[in-house]
TrEMBL record:
One of its GO terms (cellular component) is cytoplasm. The lineage of its organism: Bacteria, Thermotogati, Deinococcota, Deinococci, Deinococcales. Its cofactor is Mg(2+). This is Phosphopantetheine adenylyltransferase. Keywords: ATP-binding, Coenzyme A biosynthesis, Cytoplasm, Magnesium, Nucleotide-binding, Nucleotidyltransferase, Transferase. One of its GO terms (molecular function) is ATP binding. Its main location: cytoplasm. Its EC number is 2.7.7.3. Substrate binds at S8, K40, L74, R88. Pathway: Cofactor biosynthesis; coenzyme A biosynthesis; CoA from (R)-pantothenate: step 4/5.
Amino acid sequence: MNAVFPGSFDPITSGHMDVLTRAAKIFDHVTVTVMHNARKTGRHLFTLEERLEILREATAHFGNVSVDSFGGLLVDYMRQQQKGIIIRGLRAVSDYEYELQIAHLNRQIGEVETVFIMAATRWSFVSSSMVREIASYGADISEMVPRASANALRRIHADVYAEREAEKLETQLRVDGGVGERG
């Protein structure tokens, strides 16, 4: 049985990867699909092409996962691809309430089923928007996202990361210099 794991993936997080890893063990094939909406152009940090590239890199180690994109209703994509299962990750009860409504609508208009996979507790607080915010300050996001996402975020915020590293080096030099003066 094949499934689709849709999202904006701006960028893909460790929580997404956790859900995908478990879905890949359950289903014969999982297509990670970047859903894009022309009316939301400019609202994403990464372009569609960049998100696809990040996803391809992050999922390259899976033998049964592919990456695709679609710009319309998810149920239309499901019909075109002849797939009937949607994978959705849940982090909290608030996610469930929203996702339940969407699942009912998708079943009603597209005759597709939704399978919910709970993200591991350690990722329940991680969202793409929070990761983007943290990265914009040059903080360490390496545990919250796969390497491909971390590298892409560091490239976008290279000036902030460079400034943060320079501050760390300057602080370390002051500490090391202070120790040497006392000795």
